[in-house]
Amino acid sequence: MEFKNEPIRDFSLEKERSSIRKTLDSIPKLFPFQIPISIGTKEKFSEKLLAHKNPWSPELMVTNVSLSKANDLEETIQISKKHWYSWKEQSQEERSRLLLKVAEKLISKKDFILSVCIWETGKQITEAEIEFAEAIDFCRYYAMLALNKLSPQKTILLGEDNIYYYQPKGIVGCITPWNFPMAIFTGMCAGPLVVGNIVITKPAEETSATAYEIAKCFWEVGIPKEVFHFLPGIGSEIGDAIVNHPEVSVINFTGSRDVGLSILRSASIVSPNQSIIKKVICELGGKNAMIVDADADLDVAIQSILPSAFGFQGQKCSALSRLYVHKDCYQRLKERLIDAMDGLLIGSPLDFGNRVGPVIHEESFLRLTKIQKENESFIVGRTRSIPTEGFYISPSLYEPPKDSSMWRSEIFGPLLSMQKISSFSEGIQLVNDSDYALTCGVISRNPKNVMEAKLKIDAGNLYINRGITGAIVNRQPFGGGKLSGTGAKAGGPDYLSLFVEGRTFTENTMRHGFSRDTIQ
Ligand code: NAD
């Protein structure tokens, strides 16, 4: 079977807009979603629940999340140990078949899941549609990859058979972020599951309803609940418990740098009752840059900068945050960018014409407002018209001094910094002067400079003459180096290898007669 990326709908067409409208508008009737803890076949609600508000109408309580505790984890571990053998002993064909069915199940619930995600996150419809397609792609791609890449290798010699094969690692704790609650959640769970591991997942607090709807699709097609557990709750409680449990073999984490580094530290400690070396996959933040060269096509530059910096309000690990522009086009680009930013339509994602929405919650809103105030004297442009209610942050452009933290810390919001460069090589030097190495863009018509960028820029994903977000499964395996992550490259050919370990059988086949018992 050939892998094909899932197509996306074009919401500039009235028929596509009206087909999802009814579902989107019907969601508030279901508020608040009550999210249970799912331990094997048992579901339960905690006494205390954590509330998540809608980002554009914070008076609406979208989700009440149950809070899993260490004893819930212990129960999942015991159930997992009983069921692991039957799951890992299933044929790869069967597990891949189930994952392909998950893709079909997701598609059958597409408008509903997408709408839940929009109400939880404030994501625009097209952004949500693209993300949903990525979730489908992950299922299909990993299902096929497991069949094609992980089959046993035989080396048969005279008198000796050697078989090299892969075995799942055991219990994988998947701790996921809120900014791609459909794609990243699906991919991070589907990968380890399809190759025969147990998954215990801890979704982000903010997007537990979206994650729960997706988990249901896995169970509904026949992936046993005993091998895929859902433990919502607070990161520093249940997330930390998963990381430190002596029987969790792999931590599959995507999130912030501080949490990721603390997980790496904790997982390196081997407790007295532990007989495994934990593996940690950490996909962390970015401080992503773009160089606009002297001869750049400025139309391409503007079209690339706007969605990269302000799409989903800059809340993407791949978002553009540092812009280095050649002195020959600096002023022209700056003026055009400021004009273009002022034309951005900001408001709730229920109006499909809006290009920028609210940030995820009040905490982010207050953090970003503080950064805006601290950098007020460096601002050169902003989108002026923004709604007064809801967690809206105006997309803003700054020219901060070289020693400003605006150049170094991940902001995770729609705030972009701009600096003049005298040469393309200076741009490359500035791009690489960062702790992060996730995405980067180059807008240039000079083949020599493009080649220099390919050779010298340190980024997991380098994009030339286009935007720097929206990696597509199989076409652009995604993930960074340096402090951006351990280089898992989600949606790429090596991803599943992270959840298996190689084993070798060697058999001496020079027989010295048969034993009577075995031939009868
Ligand atoms: P976060 O680190 O706050 O939370 C991520 C997950 O970790 C959540 O489920 C959270 O509950 C859990 N968690 C929090 N504290 C924990 C602890 N002490 N132990 C165990 N788990 C804990 O990140 P976020 O705000 O959800 O996501 C935004 C961050 O994720 C940004 O930095 C962004 O760049 C990064 N991100 C990276 C990628 C990538 O592929 N590199 C993709 C998406 C997001």
Automatic annotation (TrEMBL):
PANTHER family: DELTA-1-PYRROLINE-5-CARBOXYLATE DEHYDROGENASE 1, ISOFORM A-RELATED, DELTA-1-PYRROLINE-5-CARBOXYLATE DEHYDROGENASE 2, ISOFORM A-RELATED. The keyword Oxidoreductase applies. One of its GO terms (molecular function) is L-glutamate gamma-semialdehyde dehydrogenase activity. Pfam families: Aldedh (PF00171). Its EC number is 1.2.1.88. Residues 50-501 form the Aldehyde dehydrogenase domain. One of its GO terms (cellular component) is cytoplasmic side of plasma membrane. It catalyses: L-glutamate 5-semialdehyde + NAD(+) + H2O = L-glutamate + NADH + 2 H(+). PROSITE patterns: ALDEHYDE_DEHYDR_CYS (PS00070). GO terms for biological process: L-proline catabolic process to L-glutamate. Keywords: NAD, Oxidoreductase. The keyword NAD applies. Pathway: Amino-acid degradation; L-proline degradation into L-glutamate; L-glutamate from L-proline: step 2/2. This is L-glutamate gamma-semialdehyde dehydrogenase.
